[in-house]
Amino acid sequence: LTRSSARWTDLENNPALQEYANYGLGAAYGLIALVALVQLVRIQLRVPEYGWTTQKVFHLLNALVCSLRCGSFLFRAQMEQLHPDALRLVLFDLPGLLFFTTYTLLVLFWAEIYHQARSMPTAALRPIFIAFNALVYACQGGLWAYESMADSDSAERVSAYISAGFLAAVSLCAAVGFLLYGGRLFLMLQRFPIESRGRKKKLREVGMVTSICAACFSLRAIMVALSAVDAAELDLDVMAHPMLNIIYYCLVEIIPSAWVLYILRKLPPKRTNQGYQSIPTR
After folding, report:
1. What is the 8-class DSSP label of residue 272?
2. CB within 8 A of 270, min separation 6: which ones?
3. Beta strands in 119-165 (DSSP E)
4. What is the pLDDT of residues 48-100, one digit of tens each?
5. What is the CA radius of gyration of the chain?
């Protein structure tokens, strides 16, 4: 155990690893952003007659989040020197908030499908989604402002604890949303009386995306909370912890994003003169 701890410390203090870890993470995010943009273009070419559907917005936000992360890692050394500190925090935290919005958009989409299938009203779902996201951004903006005005170490620590607790709570809300509506939609599809290839594929898709997203948001909440409790050893988004950054961002954003994009890679059906192609029943 002592040797493993010493080896971990040596890796964390390796200047080459600190530099190239950021380049590697930036490249991974850049690749995912490119994939999301290509898929967005493919969807637009497939059904150009529709505007900004949920599917298109999801891929656009994915590309935006990953592009911001790519830039923040490729230019990490320059960002570490930014002043005031609040500006640096905004640039580090904003992609995480956008990631939350991107994937809770899937929760909204599933909630609308579930409510429509159950003949329940859907008019309030989008306003609730927008209002909740606006509240999250407003609260985080207030925390950024508070931290920028902190004039002592104790005030900065309090601000860091509150901010970490808030981000952890937001991540837990996202995990609960996926379990609630992903689980409901999964059970509804499972009870669907007609056996078809399309139903089986959708059942697998909903189950996998629900599991992946609930797990990644739960892990994010745990890691963010732990980073506030033990900032010396578990602080995230700092150059001094390259191995921790690699593990954290791979598990909570890079791998889940790539996996979900692969699962949701199917394009919408083409439109014909008679309308859209029907979904195969067997």
Report:
1. E
2. 46, 47, 276, 277
3. none
4. 877 888 999 999 999 999 999 999 888 887 877 777 677 777 888 899 999 99
5. 21
